[in-house]
Amino acid sequence: MKNLLSVIALACALVSPVFASQHSASPATSQGEVRKIDAANQKITLRHGPLANLGMPPMTMVFQVQDAAQLEGLKVGDNVSFVAQQQGSQFVASELQAAKP
Prior knowledge:
CATH 2.40.50.320; 5 strands; elongated
């Protein structure tokens, strides 16, 4: 019985950090540069660095935004921080903010 409890305790210790990293409350923030803004369709094209949470290398791609207000004040060439998520077949940029100089 003592050995069984030791095995369970060890398994919990090993699994907890992995579970916490995969289910953390705040996804990884990424950095990018605005290449195009399509406010009418709530889309933004970003040249971004690696998207660790999606396992993607640096590239340029189009992201959907949930609220067109996130695009206000941004212009082509601005550096931004954002959270990239995949929702079905779409990639969504949330928490979009101009990077502070």
